[in-house]
Design the sequence.
């Protein structure tokens, strides 16, 4: 047995008498192919796969590191890279972009001789004049972009009739490169060629956009040379690639899981990125109808699982991208939390209506949630992600009973209805929480419908009314899937756009007393941001009357929405991006007095700033 400490690929070397079979990605007389599709039976072993499989590329095993085994000296490590990614090796596994070594990047390119880059060995050909008439003849190839290359190969047309490889072969040529065709640089050449089937010129990697092969040697009366293909090989990484995992059952294929937080560790040099997507289902067959579509891509690690739950299986997709082809991003490891116990519901789906609203206008919405509860399932909290905090919550229908919500947030005592207490409060900047005491269970109903009527406003072009379930004691929300029957949807689009960008800026309360007595201890710099769909920087700063900055709030990047004082205490209050506890950047309480504040949003049209006044008293 033998092994390589690093890299991946396949090395094959078989010798029997005069017969030699060796793995190669360079020898045009011995073509190797690969496919990422699973093969059933044995027919594929004798089938002609040249049109349906891909040519192999260079593997990443260093021959000098291979211990054991006896290889033909010309044996090369070959590999195939599904979806243009390289998974490394068992000892040095990481997901990176595949590079272009062993890949003919000239295939299909524009060339001054038709067919010289079509990949068809034989015809058509670059046919040169007989004898000295071939001298200085050129063929030019144009790459789509500046690319680092290190090898150019010239392949002789296979002989027909009385032809021979020797008669069809060039006797000598040079390889030149240029960035803009105004200045050509010779990278190397060959003369007195004796390898008649194909030859190549290798050189240190260099940036090139244009490549030229020029005939440098010919003899009087020599046969007309015929070239069937010119190939170019590079060393850069491909710009995009993706890895899709197999369905993962986390050690128990029969149990449904509530997936929690997802964390990953990656190297992302400048101009590169790694983004992950997720999908969940109940069958190892990903064509089964239980599988969700891919989630949106996430570049930031440490997120809550975005796909429907609970489910038996999960798969993930790693999207790699680079703008600078000399560098690749790399995913090193991935960690997914999950729970087998504490499942809130067997299934949950939600929808909202209407599905259209004017931007910035308080609109009545009805959110409907369908729960399927099994034995042991408990739903303590339902969280609905709204486009903005509701101006009011009108009512709830639970188990057929209409429950009025007299105020929002509800008091500490909550609302008593149907033998349980409901607490209707903010769960975050744009989250509405309904907590049930005791929790909902299959004793109430195995199929349970919940309906919430509220008023809220959109400040982006679209919003998805996603929802989450929490079982008692669990901090991992269970995702509710979109209800997609009877034209139902959780998506709302705007019918009319607000022309304002940043408005509604004020301190609430305008006067506060941060003395730690639990009453009026903080203020929130409220503001409304519109038409921002990708998270943007919003700076909130506080200044004394002399213009000296005393505090810069640690605000996250924000999308369009209304960011108010949530009118609740505790940790939830601090989720407002404009929350200020009266302390300076050093953590000390500021002196009583008048303070100025500013809210600055980074918009496509430039920074927009709105200022205001707040009063600190004791």
Sequence:
């Amino acid at each position: 047995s033998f092994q390589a400490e690093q890299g991946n690929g396949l090395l094959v070397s078989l010798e029997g008498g005069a017969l030699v079979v060796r793995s190669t990605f360079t020898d045009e007389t011995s073509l190797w192919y690969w496919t990422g599709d699973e093969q059933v039976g044995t027919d594929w072993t004798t089938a002609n796969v040249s049109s349906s499989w891909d040519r192999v590329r260079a593997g990443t095993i260093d021959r000098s590191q291979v211990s054991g085994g006896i290889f033909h000296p010309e044996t090369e490590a070959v590999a195939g890279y599904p979806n243009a990614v390289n998974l490394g090796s068992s000892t040095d596994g990481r997901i990176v972009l595949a590079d272009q070594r062993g890949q003919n990047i000239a295939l299909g390119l524009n060339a001054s001789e038709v067919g010289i880059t079509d990949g068809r060995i034989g015809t058509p050909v670059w046919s040169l004049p007989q004898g000295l008439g071939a001298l200085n003849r050129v063929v030019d190839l144009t790459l789509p972009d500046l690319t680092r290359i290190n090898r150019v190969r010239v392949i002789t047309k296979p002989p027909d009739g009385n032809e021979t490889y020797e008669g069809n072969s060039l006797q000598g040529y040079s390889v030149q490169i240029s960035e803009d065709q105004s200045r050509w640089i010779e990278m190397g050449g060959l003369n007195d060629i004796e390898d008649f089937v194909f030859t190549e010129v290798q050189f240190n990697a260099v940036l090139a956009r244009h490549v030229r092969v020029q005939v440098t040697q010919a003899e009087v009366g020599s046969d007309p040379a015929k070239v069937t293909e010119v190939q170019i090989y590079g060393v850069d990484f491909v710009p995009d690639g993706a890895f899709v995992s197999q369905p993962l059952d986390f050690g128990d294929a029969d149990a449904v899981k509530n997936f929690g937080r997802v964390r990953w560790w990656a190297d992302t040099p400048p101009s590169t990125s790694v983004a992950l997507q997720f999908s969940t289902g109940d069958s190892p067959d990903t064509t089964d109808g239980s599988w969700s579509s891919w989630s949106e891509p996430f570049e930031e690690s440490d997120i809550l699982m975005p796909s429907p739950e609970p489910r038996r299986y999960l798969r993930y997709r790693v999207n790699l991208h680079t703008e600078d082809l000399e560098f690749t991003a790399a995913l090193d490891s991935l960690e997914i939390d999950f729970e087998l116990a504490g499942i809130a519901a067997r299934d949950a789906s939600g929808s909202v209506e209407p599905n259209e609203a004017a931007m910035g206008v308080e609109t009545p919405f009805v959110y409907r949630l369908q729960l399927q509860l099994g034995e042991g399932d408990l739903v303590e909290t339902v969280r609905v992600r709204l486009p903005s905090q509701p101006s009011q919550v009108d009512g709830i229908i639970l188990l057929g009973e209409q429950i009025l919500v007299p105020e929002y947030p509800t008091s500490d005592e909550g609302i008593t209805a149907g033998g349980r207490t409901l607490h209707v409060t903010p769960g975050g900047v744009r989250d509405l929480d309904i907590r049930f005491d005791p929790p909902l269970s299959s004793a109430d109903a195995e199929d349970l419908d919940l309906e919430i009527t509220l008023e809220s406003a959109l400040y982006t072009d679209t919003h998805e009314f996603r929802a989450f379930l929490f079982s008692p004691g669990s901090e991992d929300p269970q995702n509710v899937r979109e209800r997609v029957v009877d034209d139902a949807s959780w998506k709302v689009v705007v019918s009319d756009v607000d022309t304002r960008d940043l408005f509604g800026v004020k301190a609430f309360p305008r006067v506060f007393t941060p003395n730690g007595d639990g009453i009026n201890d903080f203020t929130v710099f409220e503001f409304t941001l519109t038409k921002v769909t990708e998270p943007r920087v919003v700076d909130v700063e506080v200044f004394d009357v002399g213009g000296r900055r005393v505090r810069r709030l640690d605000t996250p990047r924000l999308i369009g929405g209304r960011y108010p004082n949530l009118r609740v205490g505790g940790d939830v209050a601090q989720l407002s991006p404009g929350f200020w506890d009266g302390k300076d950047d050093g953590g000390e309480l500021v002196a009583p007095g008048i303070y100025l504040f500013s809210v600055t949003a980074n918009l496509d049209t430039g920074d927009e700033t709105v200022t205001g006044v707040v009063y600190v008293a004791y």
Q: What stands out?
A: DSSP finds two helices and 45 strands in the chain. The mean pLDDT is 92.
